[in-house]
Amino acid sequence: MAVFAIGDVQGCADAMKRLLERVRFDPAEDRLWFAGDLVNRGPQSLEVLRFVRGLGDRAISVLGNHDLHLLAMSQGVREVSPSLAPVLEAEDGPELVEWLRARPLFHHDQRLGYVMVHAGLYPSWTLEQAAAYAHEVERALAGEEYGDLLSGMYGNKPRRWSDELTGIERHRTIINIFTRMRYMKADGTLDFEFKGEPGSQPKNLVPWFDAPDRVNADEHILCGHWSTLGEVDTPNIYPLDTGCVWGGELTAMRLDGEGGWFAIPCPQACEPD
Q: Which class is 3-265 in CATH?
């Protein structure tokens, strides 16, 4: 059995299928991990959701910011974008949305030794803390009042984690860390404005994985979200988003014993809306 982790698909179903052919994915034996953002911008979000949901327990996908955005659209919190309208208009749209709503924010496989999140882990969080904070939001998403969570999750504040946070501010901060984080100041203050590649940022900012005294530095962390990140020198960080929807590549990393990286080009494969 092979296990592959795949970066942000973002509605690029054709590219995803070509990548699976490249790695010789066997749906009867192999497993797929998706680093979030299955949907949006690309033209085939409906096809991607149907495929991944159809894999059942052979696929694991963590929630990304675009996945949460689709959930918000389904509840009328945000205006429906053209690339996601086919999902919400499909006969099986409600079932796909309910399936997506049940996806986790955090996945840890002790046997394989990998953690997967969409954006990253806050530098002061242990894996046990990260799992607990993720479960807080996952329980809220599963509740009857989950529309309130979706309507309150937008915004950049608070910009620093504290376990003293409560209510929607606490949930918003957890969501922002798991699904939107890129840069921060040395004291842990999050910056959501700058999105360029490392080395081009203002001097007071560092990528989250280079923050001082990061307590989860020994963990092997798979992440997506940051299409301009490229290769990193920081040990144990495995960026999977290589910008397929922008004409880059779609990338997979094999996680079991044989290991290895695989990528297919996506030149104009998916046109953003």
A: alpha beta
